[in-house]
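Quarterly update, task 2.4: adenosine-5'-diphosphate-bound model.
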Amino acid sequence: MAVIDSFCAKDTYELGEKIGQMAKPGMVISLTGDLGVGKTVFTQGLAKGLGIEEPVNSPTFTIVQVYEEGRLPLYHFDVYRLDDISELENIGFYEYTEDCVSIVEWADKFSDELPDETLWIYLTRIDDTSRSITLSSDYLTKDDLVDIGGPYVVGN
Ligand SMILES: Nc1ncnc2c1ncn2[C@@H]1O[C@H](COP(=O)(O)OP(=O)(O)O)[C@@H](O)[C@H]1O
Ligand SMILES: [Mg+2]
C-alpha cells in the first residue's frame, strides 16, 4: 500500500499519466471515491500517458467508452448506473479486462468481479484542492507502488 497526497487536480492528472506510461495489457485500475473527488481527472491523465489525445469524460450514461488511438486500447467504464452484476457481461466487461487496459470508476460496486491484476485506487477529499490517494494491489509490490507515487508518497 502507498498513500499519496495530491494538492491540486494537476497532481492527480500526473499520477494517472505516470501509470498510463507504465500500463501493461490486462491491467485493470479500480477507482473508488465520492462524486467530484477526481476519478475522471485521474482517467484523463491515464489516457494521456497511453498516448490518447481525444477528450475523455465520464461515460456515466454509456457505461463504457473505448479509446483505440493510444499505445494500448483503453476501456473506460463508469459503473455508477449499473446495479446488476449480469449487466457487466452484456457490456463485454470480462473480455475487455482480460487483454486491454481498463479503468473502472465506482469499481467497488463490483469488486469481486475484478481480476488479480487490479490496481486499487481510493481517493478521498481533504479539502477543495487536496486529495488523499491510496494505491493498493496484490500483484504489484509495495516498492512498485511507492515508485508509482514518486515524490508524492506520504510517510515512506
Ligand atoms: N487534488 C485534486 N485532484 C483531482 N481533482 C481535483 C483536485 N482538486 C480539485 N479538483 C477538482 O475536482 C473535480 C474532480 O472531478 P471529476 O474528476 O469529474 O470527479 P469524479 O470523476 O470523481 O466524479 C474537478 O473539477 C477537479 O478540477
Ligand atoms: Mg467521473
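Highlight for this quarter: The chain has five helices and seven strands.
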